[in-house]
Structure to design on (151 residues):
């Protein structure tokens, strides 16, 4: 109803939706074309289903003790490492030709803020024993990757 006037929305059957690939769209799309997709669906929500879905999201109370026990039992797997893993029987190294000089690669230039963040992270990992100082003449590149959440 629009005011006191009854309005009936009717679709045009010639505009049925059909699945097509992006490649097909880009081949047929012209500069002045515009596209819109409107889809109306009737959605009914009854209160019983709403409460049930909340319970499913939160997890059933009866399963929580089992999960807590698993987390307690394997808590070491979820903690930050405090040292390097134990030495293995076979140590890894890269064989090089005798007297071969390392490749000279210029480091990627970061801004002041990024450099400070790298220093902070490297220091934390050194103190935690996750990494150690090396004597390799080869460079060890460091990359900062932005998280999806912006952090």
């Amino acid at each position: 109803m629009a005011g006191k006037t009854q309005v009936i929305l009717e679709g045009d059957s010639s505009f049925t939706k059909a699945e097509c690939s992006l490649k097909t769209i880009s081949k047929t799309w012209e500069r002045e074309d515009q596209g819109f997709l409107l889809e109306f669906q009737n959605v009914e929500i009854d209160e019983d289903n709403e409460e049930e879905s909340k319970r499913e999201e939160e997890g059933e109370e009866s399963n929580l003790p089992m999960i807590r026990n698993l987390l307690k039992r394997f808590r070491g797997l979820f903690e930050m490492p405090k040292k390097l893993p134990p030495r293995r029987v076979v140590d890894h190294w890269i064989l090089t030709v005798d007297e071969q000089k390392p490749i000279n690669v210029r480091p990627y230039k970061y801004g002041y803020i990024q450099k400070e963040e790298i220093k902070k992270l490297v220091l934390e990992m050194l103190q935690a024993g996750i990494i150690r100082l090396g004597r390799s003449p080869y460079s060890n590149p460091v990359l900062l990757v932005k998280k999806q959440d912006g952090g």
Notes: The mean pLDDT is 75. Helices lie at 22-28, 47-58, 64-73, 75-78, 112-128.
